[in-house]
Write a structure and sequence with these properties.
- The protein is of the alpha+beta class.
- The protein has helices at about 40-55, 65, 80-95, 105-110, 165-180, 275-290, 290-300; strands at about 5, 15-25, 25-30, 75, 140-145, 150, 185, 190-195, 200-205, 220-225, 230-235, 240-245, 245-250, 255, 260, 265-270, 300-305, 310-315.
- It is globular, with a radius of gyration of 19 Å.
Length: about 325
């Protein structure tokens, strides 16, 4: 695991430059170590996010992923990008024992998350949700060589747990390779870095979503760290939530029940060798529950877990807190 963490943050040198925007339903930021590369970085990032959205969005009627809803179990030839995204999602399922499962698409719709989150009503009437396992990632058959995908009729895929992180990794790599400068890409808190990091590392502020609303204020709910390589991801049951008939719903589902998971952790942040690996681990930790710290420790990962009551547990080399 190549990511190195250290406490504290530093001011970015003046030669650096950044740009902010919105894409994939989330806040986007790109930072480069040389301002002259910012224009190229923005163009490459925009193009990558557009490709990911067209291939992997669950909310675009014209996306490749939505087109699979009508496949009725017949093998489909898919693009290289969608094949890569699905292979990443299948790997996530394998390494987590199915705790991150790409076949949660229909269960997510049933829970009320059936459109871009900005359009999801935060309150509404009660909905009927049935407790049942999702179809299961083992039913998804992908032949990478021929790029042919087979999923059972009625099974809907959701790549939300990994596609955004994949986009961050791909964009950071492309920008670093094309410009020769250091780069940080943040997609709603899923962060990937590429190229040579600035002296002292990339300053990143990790925030407990349910904590202090001002991420510039240092409190027990926010922490400054430095990231020199790899990626960082934060998953939270408090980030995307809504209520139906007074029942609190959120976007992290337990594949065994198809319902929003009940977890002792409201926020988990993980640093890993890539943003994808960090995202897989942070999401799985929410689902895994009380055993998550030991699982992360055995995986050699650095992490910060915040309980529902606000207590902080750290794993590995994560600075501060209780190990």
């Amino acid at each position: 695991m190549s990511t190195v963490l250290a406490g504290g943050t530093s001011t970015l040198p003046r030669r650096m430059a950044s740009a902010d925007g919105v894409a994939l339903g989330t806040q986007v930021r790109v930072v480069v170590t040389d301002a002259r590369a910012l224009g190229v970085a923005c163009s490459l990032l925009d193009a990558e996010l557009s490709r990911i959205d067209k291939a992997c969005s669950r909310f675009r009627k014209d996306s490749e992923l939505v087109a699979l809803d009508g496949a009725d179990g017949v093998p489909q030839e898919i693009s290289g990008l969608l094949a890569e995204a699905i292979e990443v999602a299948l790997r996530a399922a394998r390494v987590t024992g199915g705790q991150v499962d790409l076949t949660v698409g229909q269960a997510m719709n049933d829970a009320g998350y059936d459109r871009d989150f900005a359009a999801v009503a935060r309150t509404g009437r009660a909905i009927r949700v049935v407790r049942r396992p999702v179809p299961g990632w083992q039913l998804v058959q992908l032949d990478l060589e021929s790029r042919r995908l087979t999923i059972p009729s009625g099974t809907r895929l959701d790549l939300g747990a990994t596609a955004k992180a994949l986009a961050a990794d791909r964009a950071a790599s492309q920008i670093a390779e094309s410009t020769g400068v250091g780069v940080l890409v943040s997609l709603g808190g899923d962060i990937a870095v590429g190229g040579v990091a600035p002296s002292g590392g990339w300053p990143v502020r990790v925030q407990d979503i349910a904590g202090h609303p001002d991420a510039t204020v240092e409190t027990s709910n926010t922490q400054g760290i430095s990231l020199t390589s790899g990626g960082l991801a934060t998953s939270s049951t408090a980030a995307r939530k809504w209520t139906r008939g007074g029942r609190l719903m959120h976007h992290i589902l337990d594949p065994l029940s198809g319902l929003p998971v009940t977890s002792p952790w409201r926020t988990v942040s993980v640093a890993a060798a890539s943003c994808v690996d960090a995202n897989i681990a942070s999401t799985a930790s929410i689902v895994r529950g009380i055993d998550a710290p030991g699982w992360l420790q055995r995986g050699g990962l650095d992490a910060r877990l915040v309980t529902d009551g606000g207590s902080i547990v750290t794993v590995g080399r994560w600075p501060g807190g209780e190990n």
